[in-house]
Amino acid sequence: MHDTSQVVGAAKAYADVFSAPQALDAATVTKLVRNVFMAIVLPLMAFRYSRTAQEPVESGGKMRFLRLLPLFIVGFLVLAVVRSAGDAAINAGGNAFGLWDQATWQSVHSLVKGWAETLMVIALAAVGLSTDLRAFKGLGLRPLLAGLSAALAAGIVSYIAISLLGNLVTL
What totals of helices (H) and strands (E) does the chain contain, helices first? Predict the structure, then answer.
């Protein structure tokens, strides 16, 4: 699975069926770590592409870095920092941002988590309902084989990593 929502959805289903909430936490953290690295890689790739594509440069002959950084990455990083800082303050015995004590922070966290789960289900349904299968008809066999190869490679690497490292992880 490549999409964060798919990973979280599958982990949520697993957690609910097998009464293992830690599976949802582990899957979410693992996928979010990958997303953090995307925040580094995507701007670098965009910068490299913009240099090789010889796109018109902003006035003054310098490329604007913020133009290369997708807005969703900025949002993700801001929310990750807010959550981490709030949790760190609460765990250190203080209050979150000078506003909330532990009980209020946990209440806000539960509320946001509930909304996030609901919105994730809505987003997944929207993606599925907006898929036009007729668009795949004219693509041919090559894209299917490329996607299948990538999925198989990811599956094989994941299986090997789980087999080798699975005993080291305790949930």
Answer: 7, 0
Q: Are 5 and 124 in contact (CB under 8 A)?
A: yes
pTM of the shown model: 0.52
Residue whose token pair is 């539960």: 110
For the segment 56-115, what is each residue's pLDDT rounded down to a tens digit?
Answer: 555 555 556 666 677 877 887 888 888 888 888 888 888 877 778 888 888 988 999 899
Q: Are 14 and 1 contacting, i.e. CB atoms less than 8 angstroms apart?
A: no
Asked if 78 contacts 56 with a C-beta cutoff of 8 angstroms, the reply is no
Judging by beta carbons within 10 Å of its beta carbon (0-12, 13-18, 19+), is residue 27 exposed, middle or buried? buried
Give the length of the chain: 171
Residue 91, classed as helix, strand or coil, is helix
